[in-house]
Design goal:
82 residues; alpha+beta; three-stranded antiparallel β-sheet
Length: 82
């Protein structure tokens, strides 16, 4: 299985019941999986920039959103990974 396909599968799993997640949260959850390569990918592990690069080929991009705490950051929607 290619790294990019593995990322799609792991992203779908990571969302759980959430409809959307901030990019930083998605990256942190992916890196927490000790059986996945995300914590050790590249020089310092998966980060928002490398996540964007891996997902770009699938046409998946983050968008600015307002979150429950009132902050505005970039994030992803679960339906992008279905």
């Amino acid at each position: 299985m290619s790294l990019r396909v593995r990322l799609l599968i792991d992203c779908r799993t990571t969302f759980g019941n959430a409809e959307r997640l901030p990019t930083e949260t998605l990256v942190a959850r992916l890196r927490e999986d000790s059986e996945a390569p995300w914590a050790t990918l590249g020089k310092n592990g998966l980060n928002p920039k490398s996540l964007a690069g891996l997902l770009r080929d699938f046409g998946i991009t983050s968008a600015r959103d307002r979150w429950e705490d009132g902050s505005q950051t970039r994030g992803f929607r679960r339906d992008q990974f279905e």
